[in-house]
Model the fold of this input.
Amino acid sequence: MGLFLNSRIPFDSYKATASEKYFVDKSALIAELIPALGTSQRFFCITRPRRFGKSVMANMVGAFFGKSTNASELFDNLKIAAPDITQKLIKTTHKDYHEYLNQYDIIYIDFSEVPEACTSYGTYIFRILQGLKRDLSETFSEHNINTNDSVWDILTRLYQQTSQRFLFILDEWDAVFHMDFITDDDRKSYLLFLKSLLKDKIYAELVYMTGILPIAKYSDGSELNMFVEYNMATSERFSEYFGFSDSEVDKLYDIFQRTTENPKITRDDLRLWYDGYHTVGGEQIYNPRSIVCALTDNQLRNYWTSSGTYDSIFGYIKNNVADIQDDLALLFSGESISADILEYAATSMHLTTKDEIYSSMVVYGLLTYKDGFVSIPNRELADSFAAMMKREKSLGYIYNLANESKKMLHATLTGNTQVMAEILTFAHNTESPIFSYNSEIELAAIVNLVYLAARDNYRVEREDKAGEGYVDFIFYPVIKTADALILELKVDCTPEEAIQQIKDKKYFFRFKGKLGEEPKYTGKILAVGIAYDKKTKVHSCKVEELKNISPAS
Done:
């Protein structure tokens, strides 16, 4: 067993994953790879955002096909062994899955790993090249391998002498593009390395490659054009194997309820926090890592952060703040923005146009894409956007309004409608098209910004189903004894009319338990009406405590 050739690490890693309490079986993916073995369609590049199970699937593929360890005890209990999949395999390949299990020499490379104290591409690639040569020399010692030859020449000679083929699993293929010491020339050298190792090589029985970025397109795109790429935004195939579906999360949540003492997470909480991504086929999917972490910890929080430079939202928009500002306000209020998702070069992070920026953010999972529109997928990412808006001064009015939000929340809780109106007027005086308030959508975008600080102590829901209709905003306090807020927005109406709608539609039901039960919240319930008169350009506000309310009211 070598560092790269026939390593037992993929098996051990996948076995550990499969033994976890919140494991989801995606082994049916293997049945889609088997028919491609040895064919011209044997080159797969599957790209997904971080934390969507790419490495888990790579380990699974290595554990299944690799010779290093007998994996029958593991896979005999998974979907790949199910009768329907076995019958399908026999129809297409005339063999069942056992005849492919642990039958291949695997070359497994995790490109995110670097040598100790690595500061150059030369040092980085030397580890891979020398490691492969050492593994091949030790495994095939009877063939007198010359380690001064290139890896691809060694593999070609082995094939000519023995008909020996290899199954390549290349995880995080694009990790090199994220490394600070890599230059543009290094990136070209790296792509040439992949081309030399894989393109038109008969010794490659199958190549399964994963990453975040699509394969770089240079000139005529000939370097790696043997790969078929499958991304989340535009490719339907393989969609079910990355991310968790509703039904899969249902099963995990059932395990959580049965095995957790004092469960503090609801099923709706998981949907709100971690759902919202879309497959091309229209299915919504959850961030799998965040689901597993939340259920394991019995706590809802942002598990997305602190994973690297490419998780920094501001890093994508900093080159075009002027064009992105207004969209950012609308995105944060829950709106979708029209965008053309581009297949841009992997080496390009000099993002300037909106479509480049949004395309990149979709690729990295910071936005989700559906039917020509991008949006913020869930609460977890909305929190990351909120943190950025409170921190980055170059965002201009976005930053200024976000930092007025503590004052706005305090004014609302104390009923200081004059200060509330002053802050809204301050927002309106900012030069931005969305402040024209042509509809309540634009007003809602501003309200989101001026109440940004409320998210530290409230779960803020927009257009939440409550009572007999849909309310503009409900602020659910984290501390059950704190005051709750119901906001209704109106253009060319009065705040009194807004509050009357709150009463008429019984939006307050969300804060009251059923008859005979303890109420969900014990603080005051404040109805907040915010109105804007397009003719007079005046904002008006009203705050009223809703008293003596019961579910029978």
Notes: Residues 12 and 63 are 8 Å apart (CA to CA). The chain has three domains: 9-240, 246-297, 396-553.
